[in-house]
Amino acid sequence: MLTEPRDEEQIIARVAALDIGKAELVCCVRVPGSGASTRRLQEVTTHATMSRALTELANYLIDLGIERVVMEATSDYWKPVFYLLEAHGLDPWMVNARDVKHLPGRPKTDVRDAVWLCKVAERQMLRASFVPPRPIRQLRDLTRYRSALIAARTAEKNRVEKLLADACIKLSVVASDIFGVSGREMMDALIAGQHDPKVLAQKARSRMRTKLGRLEEALNGHFDDHHGFLLARMHSGARVPTARISPHFRISVGVDVHARSVVACGLDGDTGELFERRLTPDRHGIFGWIRTLPDPAAVTYEAGPTGFGLARFLLASGIECLVAAPSKLQRPAGDRVKTDKRDARQFGTAAASGSDRGGNDPRCRAGGRERSAAGAGGVRRDLMSARHRV
């Protein structure tokens, strides 16, 4: 049996829609008619996407009393328009182009797109896409740029490894990281024209000294001037993103923190020297040992039950500190032996290479809220367990 629905069509009285391009945009405005007329008034105008023209458009929309401004996500062109309208107190909506797909068989122009978008918007048939607030947008820009730099650096490192393989230099077979201190010095010597495997193997530092025989065999290839020319460019190309990813710290300190013991390992990025020490959980003792290392130094440790107290203390004392997310720390394949010293050394190496990932910034968090949130989570888990038992 057919019945008459009681719901009434909700129409936004004053609405605007923008079809945005690189150089200009088309604006369609729909407002109520004058007097007792139920007909709608419509105006379509074209504006430049320069700041002055956008400011004039925003003031015009404010004078008309526009309640909502809708636009499609067109490349990155929508961003300055959205931010400027938002700054002027308007209510901009960014919608998915899939939700406002034009009807098939009709010509598609900027004017028609703006009118269609405005008609759909005034009947509230669209939903706004999430646009984060300004601090989150800035954080997104930084993290995405950092990801792009890491990808560029990884691509250059892969090219270097392929070039060495082309010259039958099997350095990556012996060294787990050919861009460590030992590997970089060997590549610098190759670029300088040194091709003697025994001389190159003597560039090894620290634990690599135990592999001199294998290194001499791995470095015995047919590296010529052509390889040297390419390696010099690729090697310098891999260094540029590294310098942009994070500020240079000579000492990268990894700390494995437990309730009763702390193991710290400092890696000197200039000389490759390791500084290892077993300490007590006393923050002042940890700070005192770090101050004995060459400046500048940065500290990394794993987030866990010990919390962010150490990080806050070190940051307040003027030492850069990062609490790394455990799930983002990469372990070498086949490395199943886990000790405090190995973990501390891994944190320091990850910080030196820029491959670590930070957790929540302790500078922006309050310990009371952390404990309250953790307590609430525990209560919820206990309640859920009790319900399951019932």
Write structural notes for this entry:
By secondary structure, the chain is of the alpha/beta class. Helix content is 44%, strand content 16%. The protein is built from 13 helices and ten strands. The chain has helices at 51-64, 78-87, 110-122, 134-166, 171-174, 181-192, 197-201, 212-218, 225-245, 283-291, 309-316, 340-353, 367-389, and strands at 15-20, 24-32, 40-48, 68-72, 92-95, 251-257, 262-268, 274-279, 297-302, 320-324. A five-stranded mixed beta sheet has the order 3-2-1-4-5, sandwiched between helices. A five-stranded mixed beta sheet has the order 8-7-6-9-10. The protein is elongated. The protein starts with 14 loop residues before the first strand and ends with a helix. The model is unreliable at 360-373 (pLDDT under 50).
SSE run:
EEEHEHEHHHHHHHEEEHEHEHH
Would you tell me the overall average pLDDT?
Answer: 80
Task: List the uncertain runs.
Answer: 360-373
Tally of contiguous helical segments: 13
Instruction: Report the structural category.
Output: alpha/beta
The tally of strands reads 10
Question: Could you tell me the strand content as a percent range?
Answer: 15-25%
